[in-house]
Amino acid sequence: MAPPQAALDFVDFVNSSPTPYHAVKSASARFEKAGFTLIRERDSWASTLRPGGKYYLTRNGSSIVAFAIGRKWRPGNPVAIVGAHTDSPCLRVKPVSKKSNVGYLQVGVETYGGGIWHSWFDRDLSLAGRVMVREGDSVVQKLVKVDKPLLRIPTLAIHLHRQANFEPNNEIELFPIAGLAAAELNKAKPEEPKDEAMEEDEDFKPLEKMTVRHHPAVLDVVANEAGVDVASIVDFELVLYDTQKSVIGGINDEFVFSPRLDNLGMTYCSVEGLIASVSTADALEADSTIRLTVCFDHEEIGSQSAQGAHSNLLPSVLRRLSVLPGNRDAASDGSYEHVQHEAEEATAYEQTLTRSFLVSADMAHAVHPNYAGKYESSHQPAINGGTVIKINANQRYATNSPGIVLLQECARKAGVPLQLFVVRNDSPCGSTIGPGLAAKLGMRTLDLGNPQLSMHSIRETGGTADIGNAVKLFSQFFGSYGEIEPKILVD
C-alpha cells in the first residue's frame, strides 16, 4: 500500500526547508498557488483587504501569517487561529568562523536551542541560510542551500575514549571539519575583486573582511550557490543541516524518518489546513470569521525576538483585522458605505480577542518502547494514533476543558482521532508558544501536536497517517469554528 499523499508532500516540504527562511519561502509558494495575495506590514491595508479575500505576509523572511476573510465578516468578529513555529535546534555558523587545528580547516559554530548535540556527530552536514548581497546601491537577501556534504563532526575512536556516557563539550568538541589546511594553502588564490562601494573609504573598515572572518573556500561555495561574487557578500546567517533527506520508512510505510519534525511537522499541517479549508469556491460565502495561520521563528530559544511569538506580530495583525469593515454596501457612485458605527469599532479589537481561539500546534512526545517507564501510564501517545492534546496543570501548556470540548467536536466532524498527554509528576515539562500568547492576548488557547520520537535529535521519527489527520483537523477547525464557538462559551 502506498504511503498517504500528505506524508509524501510533507517530505518534499521538509527537504526544501533546511532553515526557517526556506520554510517561509516554501509556505509562501503554497499560499501563492492557492490564490493568496502577498501584503506587507508597512503598507496600509484599508484599500487592499476585502471580505472573501485571502492574504499572507512575512516578517524577517522567517515568520509568516496567512488568513482568509469570511464574506460575512464584521468588526469584532472571531478569528480562528492555528499557530506553529518554523525553527528547530541546529548549529549556527559564528560571525567569525575561521578556525584550524593540527592540519584541519574547521568552522566555528554556535548551538541554537536545546538540541541533542551528540546526534550531530558523524553526519554528512552542509550549509543553508540567507546571504546579504550587495546589488548596486542596495543590499538584498538571497537564500542558499548547499546540497553537497561539506562538513562533519567526527567522534573520537572508542579506543581513545572508553567513557560510558558521550557528553561532548559544546565549545571545544563540536567544531566540524571542512577540509585539510594543506589543500587550502596549495590552492591558487585568484585576485580578489574590489568592492566598489568601499573604494572611497578604503582605509576605513568597520569590520574585518568576510574573507578574513571565514575560510575563503567556504565563501566560494556559498557565493557560487547564491550566484554572486564573494566580494558582493556583505554578511550571512548560515546554519548546518543534515544532507540526508527526509524519507518514508517502516515495514508498512508507517513512519517518517526526518530532520526538523519539530516543528516543520505542524508548520506544514497548519499551512495545508488553512489552504484545504478554502479550497472550494464557496468556502467563505457564509463565514463570519477570519481563518488565520501564523508560523513564528525563534520558539526554540524562548520566542523573545521581533519575529517570535512574544513579539507584536500577532497582536498587531489581529488589531488591524478586527476593525476591518465587513458589511459594505456599494453606493450608486461605486463607493462603499460603512454600516458599522465608530463607537462599535472602538472596542472591536477587544471583542475579537474574547471571541477568538488559538490552537498552539507544536509536536508532541510519542511513547518510546524502550523507555515506557518515562511516561505516565495512562497518557502514552501512539504514533499514527492521532493528534495529541497536551495538558499541564502548571500551565506549561494552555489547554483547558472548554478547549478540549471544542477541539473534540472539530475532530468528530473531521472523522479523525485525538489523544491526551500529560507528563509524569516527577518529570520536567516543555512548553510552547501557547501559554505566552494566551497571557498576552487573553485568548482561549489549546496546545496540541502530532506524536514523534527523538524530539530535538538531528533525525526524528513521526507517523505518516498523523500528517493527513492533522491537516483534516485544522481544516475542520477553520471551517466550523464560527458555528461551534457560540455553543461552547464560558465567560
From TrEMBL:
Coiled coil: none annotated. The keyword Protease applies. It is an enzyme of class 3 (hydrolase). Its EC number is 3.4.11.21. It holds the Pfam family Peptidase_M18. One of its GO terms (cellular component) is fungal-type vacuole lumen. This is aspartyl aminopeptidase. It comes from Hypocrea virens (strain Gv29-8 / FGSC 10586) (Gliocladium virens).
